[in-house]
Amino acid sequence: MTAAGCWPAMDMLRSEPMQLVQLIIPIESAHRAISYLGDLGLFQFKDLNAEKSPFQRTYATQVKLGEYEAELLEMNANTEKLQRSYNELLEYKLVLQKARQVFYSAEHNAIAQHREVEQALGEGSIDSPLLLEQEMSTEPSKQVKLGFVSGLVAREKSLAFERILFRSTRGNVYHKQVVVEEPVTDPVSGDKVEKNVFVVFYSGERAKNKILKICDAFGANRYPFPDDISKQYQMITEVSGKLSELKTTIDIGQLHRANLLQSIGYEFEQWNLLVKKEKSIYHTLNMLSLDVTKKCLVGEGWCPTFATNQIQNVLNRATVDSNSQVGAIFQVLHTKDSPPTYFRTNKFTSAFQEIVDAYGYVWRLGPWNMLVSCNIIFHTSGEETVQPGNNVATHIWLRSEKLGDIMEMAFGGRYVIMMMALFSIYTGLIYNEFFSVPFELFGRSAYDCRDSTCRDASTLGLIKVRHTYPFGVDPKWHGTRSELPFLNSLKMKMSILLGIVQMNLGIILSYYNAKFFRNDLNVWYQFVPQMIFLNSLFGYLSLLIIVKWCTGSQADLYHVMIYMFLSPTDDLGENQLFMGQKYLQIALLLAALVAVPWMLFPKPFLLKKQHEERHRGQSYALLDSTEDDSFELEEHKGSHGHEEFEFSEVFVHQVIHTIEFVLGAVSNTASYLRLWALSLAHSELSSVFYEKVLLLAWGYNNVFILIIGIVVFICATVGVLLLMETLSAFLHALRLHWVEFQSKFYEGDGYKFSPFSFVSIGDDEE
């Protein structure tokens, strides 16, 4: 007998049965076994080393696939050093060439100036510069030789550089700059920079230290310049030779690097996937505990019960392929831990499953597979007729394209959009309209004019001359004075009927959950009173709607429902739809009143009684049992294994649940009226775009205005009716599912089954 007894298993509506498994794998076959399990993708490992840091795990440094990476890093470092040396030599060559001009020009100018000053000042003056005073006041044999610093400075900093030199040395330097015509590659930054060659003449170590600090502050690169002319020519020759050698070396290195990168590029995707697989394998191996004495790894995890044979076959194949003398052990563990939720999906159902997963995952109270999504009632079918063809074209085009976030989301939900389009087309057929234009697809209308001229059609109306239109709304309603009141009443009542049916379905699903888990308390003190309360009020309203449609009565249902509460014993008068209606209303009202305390009081006291019996040892649960007769008690289990039961908390929780259901029955029913409002808005927008844009442009008998009208009509139809209203329909349908429907039975407090799989590695990369 199954867990549900005589009840159907309904595997398509529930999560796959899960089991906790222990794997004992020999070390020599561990890598291959984990790799095969990754290919299978049906085993979720538990981390048995959660208390250890990543560096303390067994396989923390196992992945070593960096041969090409090390070679590339070394090549890049060498190339960077060579390129820097090459740029420095280029700058040095420029300094040697330009500084010669500055040096000899400064020397000749100094000699000429010295002679002029000697002739003009004779023995010296207080106004003479310090350097010249020193030179003139000493004998030629005792004169101090001037030092100099040469290099390159950025042209944009050259003026500030010169000013700082002058102020810091109080004018006791001779500074000269020569412009370099072409931009120079800076050895440090590697950027092209416009620079000037500078030479600064000074006297004394103190001035030299100041100049060197200023050069460092301005990022000026200094290069030595020999005094001897022969050494200058020798240095230029040596630098030119080194530049030629470095250029050749750099070109060869770049060619080798390009060849290496090209060879890597051919295998990069495969290597990238291989490295990710290896890292994921060793990351999973680090989640297993190492048994040193037995030379094996012990792992635990969850898997579906249907995958037992597949996992065992994979482990056996890993043992054979690794030539291991000992096979892996597969052992099922009995536990009360909550299993993950797992639904098998395909390309069509995966998008619907993602929508349900966004609400939450379930393991406890009925893991129903909510893959069916309702669609908002659109008024016409014309706009949505475009959608299926657009879906097919989008699917074909996007398969080979790199998707952005928005397009990837739309592509993932293409089947949701397709289903919305198909159901919207069906709804358009119900209303017998196409782009707000009525059509008689299923035969002629049941109504016609009173005479051939139809003069009284707008005043006296039409008369029924044939049988009722066979499918949907009669197209003659379109454009009449009573179209809006008639369709509003129809849509409002249809919205209420759909809402009551869906809420009843949710409560019925809670019954199957209770039977599946053998929880009689939820059957008798949750399902039964909820069904009585909802249908005593709003189920009765649905009955009145159907009876009114069938009988053609003019009864005011608002009056009936209001006075059912205010004056239940008064006669209904002209609002009576059938015999005995007053007594039925009184009985239903009493049933609804009884259902409220029925939901509120018995369950907490019965839970308390179960707890007391369990505490006295009068009730036991099997260790290997998959059912839980009273899950509410499990929620109050202490961290030390002792059960804790707070009656006040349970009672308050039941009060909240009861109030939420009673008030929600009213608010949820009213919430389904959004279907009426959205359908009305869509209908009116479609009519406005057709009559006030397309027909208005057609009436001008002007080609230019007609083209503009068609373009505006297409843009408005696509932008508003197709895109915005489709998104609006999806969001409102999602709200009705999450709040009004799933709240009746769906808990969503579980967690998703996340198996170790190589497929997810590729998905994460994309």
From TrEMBL:
Record keyword Manganese present: no
GO cellular component, one term: vacuolar proton-transporting V-type ATPase, V0 domain
Compartment list: Membrane
Pfam families recorded: V_ATPase_I
Keyword field: Hydrogen ion transport, Ion transport, Membrane, Transmembrane, Transmembrane helix, Transport
Assigned protein family: Belongs to the V-ATPase 116 kDa subunit family.
Free-text function comment from the UniProt entry: Essential component of the vacuolar proton pump (V-ATPase), a multimeric enzyme that catalyzes the translocation of protons across the membranes. Required for assembly and activity of the V-ATPase.
Record's protein name: V-type proton ATPase subunit a
Species of provenance: Sesamum calycinum
Organism classification: Eukaryota, Viridiplantae, Streptophyta, Embryophyta, Tracheophyta
